[in-house]
């Protein structure tokens, strides 16, 4: 790495930690406690922390967002490692955030090594690395700044831009970042295995395929498709070479397929995973969203396809974007939008190759190269940063806790015996992670009848119902505890008194009621 590459890595690390730094500064200046979620949607990283805690306690995770019995069936190697750290004394949030440096290194190493394989000149390689890591659609930014917040066009372009931008993965989705970053390293490892460099590259490719699939199944499927298609295209005229490729492919494809089969079985036999799959199984965005979303990189990249690949590496580079689109449009799986993750890197390299073909042996003009890269990177990055600033400022998600709310979580965690919690929706996102207890409503994808439960919770904590109606909601939920965070001002004491064991436990501005046990006790 040259000095400029270290600068890029430093800037990328700053981007990765920027939201967390901003949240810490806000706490220093205004008080409170950060929950540890530093992405656009608090509920997602809090779900991972919830799974992490369970992995440390049971070795596998169950759905804690429905207050219903269910199996501990979800096993994840990264969560198991973080769960071990939690058992050793790490806080649950810190045990998850230790993956952020790993994610940064994985994404940067993948971009650096993969770009170096195809671009010899330092300036060319650096331009591809910056585009691959920092690409944020300027079209989405212009549209987002120009139209109403409720616009469907804005929503779709924000959606595709978020899937392509690696900053999204670093802001809360760390295992996705690890999987996306390792994928190009796995492709390069398999190329080395094809070159007869021994068993180690083949083993590395297989292990990476396993990790990529477990971290992000869509990238695992894309990884397998790239290797199969590139091997076929390289050796299709030589049956002997094709047979040799098949033997090399077999262990890598097998390792890559194992997590995919596991996720498939979860979606069929675990009720919560089956429910989540049905909730997330909605249609793809219109075709024009794909075109516009990838256009800034895809248009120049198309010119690189005029040159026929001469080797296996050339095929994997050109097949990668196509494979991602194929996986996206295949009528299988749920939430296929994740197939776009990681596509910025091959498109960026192809775009630079196309421009290099135009200039021949001449160096790329520094000013115009910097201007073009800045146009494709800077406006979109500012737009994404402004979006997360707006999400924090809106106050609709639990980025922060009051000290009393933190103390209430600690009290709930210490109480002996089973029993779940009934809480306002924003607070349901973090209670399981901090206490290990189930909640009646948490993440929408994992909570049955989420719409109805949300309305019931809103009626309860807004104080609009009668005492009988509020008691009926609590009884129907089956919760042992009712938690009112500091944002709840409704006077619930008299309404809950007939079913509570005593007055509310007060923790500053937060309150917790313990409900009388039903005849069969708490489960």
Helix content: 55-70%
**How many domains, in number, for the residues?**
2
Query: What is the 3D shape?
Result: globular
Order of helices and strands: HEHHHHHHHHHHHHHHHHHEHEHHHHEHEE
Helix and strand composition category: mainly alpha
**Low-confidence segments, ≥5 residues, pLDDT <50?**
none
Number of strands: 6
List keywords for this structure.
single chain; 523 residues; mainly alpha; 2 domains; 4-stranded mixed sheet; two-stranded antiparallel ribbon; 66% helix; 3% strand; globular
Could you please describe the fold and organization of this structure?
- This protein is mostly helical and 523 residues long.
- It folds into 2 domains: 176 residues, no CATH class; 272 residues, no CATH class.
- 66% of the residues lie in helices and 3% in strands.
- The chain is built from 24 helices and 6 strands.
- The strands form 2 sheets. The chain has a 4-stranded mixed beta sheet with strand order 3-4-6-5.
- Helix 5 crosses helix 6, helix 5 packs parallel to helix 10 and helix 10 runs parallel beside helix 12.
- The longest helix is centred in the middle third of the chain and has 31 residues.
- The protein starts with a helix and ends in a 9-residue tail after the last strand.
- The model has no long low-confidence stretch (mean pLDDT 93).
State the gist of this model.
By secondary structure, the chain is mainly α.
């Amino acid at each position: 790495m040259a000095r400029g590459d270290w600068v890029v890595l430093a800037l990328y690390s700053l981007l990765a930690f920027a939201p967390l730094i901003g949240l810490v500064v806000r706490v220093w200046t205004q008080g409170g406690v950060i929950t540890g979620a530093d992405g656009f949607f608090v509920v997602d990283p809090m779900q991972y922390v919830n799974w992490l805690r369970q992995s440390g306690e049971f070795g596998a995770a169950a759905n804690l967002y429905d207050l219903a019995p269910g199996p501990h069936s979800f096993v994840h190697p990264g969560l198991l490692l973080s769960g071990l750290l939690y058992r050793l004394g790490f806080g649950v949030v810190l045990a998850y955030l230790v993956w952020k440096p790993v994610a940064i290194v994985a994404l940067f190493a993948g971009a650096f090594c993969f770009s170096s394989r195809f671009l010899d000149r330092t300036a060319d390689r650096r331009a591809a690395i910056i585009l691959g890591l920092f690409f944020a659609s300027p079209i989405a930014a212009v549209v987002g700044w120009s139209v109403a917040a409720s616009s469907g066009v804005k929503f779709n372009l924000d959606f595709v831009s978020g899937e392509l931008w690696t900053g999204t993965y670093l802001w809360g989705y760390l295992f996705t970042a690890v999987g996306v970053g390792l994928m190009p390293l796995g492709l390069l490892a398999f190329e080395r295995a094809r070159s007869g460099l021994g068993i180690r590259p083949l083993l590395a490719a297989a292990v990476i395929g396993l990790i990529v699939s477990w971290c992000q199944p869509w990238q695992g499927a894309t990884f397998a498709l790239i290797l199969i298609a590139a091997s076929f295209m390289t050796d299709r005229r030589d049956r002997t070479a094709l047979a040799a490729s098949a033997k090399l492919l077999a262990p890598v494809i097998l390792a890559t397929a194992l997590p995919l089969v596991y996720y498939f079985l979860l979606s069929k036999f675990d009720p919560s995973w089956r429910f989540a799959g049905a909730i997330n199984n909605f249609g793809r965005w219109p075709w024009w969203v794909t075109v516009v979303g990838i256009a800034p990189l895809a248009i120049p990249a198309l010119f690189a396809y005029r040159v026929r690949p001469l080797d296996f590496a050339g095929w994997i580079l050109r097949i990668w974007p196509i494979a991602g689109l194929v996986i996206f449009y295949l009528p299988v799986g749920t939430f296929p939008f994740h197939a776009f993750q990681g596509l910025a890197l091959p498109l960026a390299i192809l775009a630079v190759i196309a421009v290099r073909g135009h200039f021949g042996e001449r160096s790329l003009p520094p000013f115009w190269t910097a201007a073009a890269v800045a146009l494709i990177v800077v406006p979109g990055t500012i737009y994404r940063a402004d979006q997360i600033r707006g999400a924090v400022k809106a106050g609709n998600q639990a980025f922060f806790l009051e000290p009393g709310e933190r103390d209430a979580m600690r009290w709930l965690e210490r109480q002996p015996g089973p029993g779940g919690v009934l809480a306002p929706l924003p607070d349901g996102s973090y209670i399981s992670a901090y206490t290990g207890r189930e909640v009646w409503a948490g993440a929408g994808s994992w909570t049955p009848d989420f719409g109805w439960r949300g309305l019931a919770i809103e009626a309860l904590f807004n104080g609009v119902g009668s005492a009988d109606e509020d008691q009926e909601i609590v009884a129907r939920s089956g919760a042992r505890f009712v938690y009112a965070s500091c944002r709840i001002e409704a006077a619930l004491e008299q309404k809950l008194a007939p079913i509570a064991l005593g007055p509310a436990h007060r923790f500053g501005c937060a309150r917790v009621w313990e409900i009388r046990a039903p005849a069969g006790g708490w489960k």
